[in-house]
Amino acid sequence: MNRRNFLLKSVGFLIGSYFGLNSFSKAFAKEKHRNHTAGQPRIALIIDDIGFSLSHARQFLNLGVPITFAILPRLVYSYDLALEIHDNGHEILLHQPMEPYNIDCFDPGPGALYVGDGPDRIESIIEENIADVPYAVGVNNHMGSRFTEAYQEIRQVLENVKKRDLFFVDSFTSSHSMGYRTAKKLQMPATGRNIFLDNLHDESSIYVQLDKLKRHSKKYGHAVGIGHPFPETVHTVGRFVEYIKDSDISLVHVSDVL
Questions:
Q1: What are phi and psi of 125, to 5 degrees?
Q2: Whole-model pTM?
């Protein structure tokens, strides 16, 4: 598409992600609602982009609640943080970098996958990245707005994820992502992001998103929120944890809502 249409599409999706669910996520939510059995509402919080800083990750560990940490591979603290997070009883995902549309502006980082990569390269990259993130029980995509729309490539990724007995979480960085749907076709455990928490780095905005996450969990039985290791996010999540501690909502690892 031309630049103008791309920008319009991108802005529309980001606005949709922030103020509510995009169209595919709505369908995804309805599907999960049909399969939901009565029980306590559950919220799974995923913190992406772990690996750059020890202190930022530890602030989330100090909250003392179940959190799933998505660790980027091949960063200075990736391996050590995976060990520390596991020792603290939390769940770990490989935060697999994938090609975005606007790659001139956003570098997916080391260990990334690109549209056009063949099966051998995809397999070797995933194998090397998993080795750098010990105790990973699943995979979610970092960026990947272009890659997750490429059916052949995303299927090859998911086949590799499945054969390693890992699950997949679709971050839905594209409203046209093939990730979740392909995972279900492969009959592997999978789920998807419902709400991005911190597109705006402002505590009041983040709290609004957490409230949406709470309401989504009450309506559909569970909800998956993705945030990042920002000071504003950890402070607001801490407030939210205090707010719901006497409610019927439980915080769980993302494997509990597959």
A1: -65, -45
A2: 0.87
Per-residue pLDDT of the chain (258 residues), as tens digits, is 444 444 444 444 444 444 444 444 444 544 444 444 457 999 999 999 999 999 999 999 999 999 999 999 999 999 999 999 999 999 999 999 999 999 989 999 999 999 999 999 999 999 999 999 999 999 999 999 999 999 999 999 999 999 999 999 999 999 999 999 999 999 999 999 999 999 999 999 999 999 999 999 999 999 999 999 999 999 999 999 999 999 999 999 999 999
Q: What CA–CA distances, in Å, run from 258 to 170, 192, 253?
A: 11, 9, 10
Q: Is the sign of the CA dihedral 207, 209, 211, 217 positive or negative?
A: negative
What's the topology of domain 3-33+40-257? TIM Barrel (3.20.20)
Whole-angstrom distance, CA of residue 222 vs CA of residue 194: 10
Alpha-carbon distance of 115 to 100, in angstroms, equals 10
Q: How many residues does the chain have?
A: 258
Packing angle of the helix pair 119-132, 151-163 (nearest 10 deg):
50
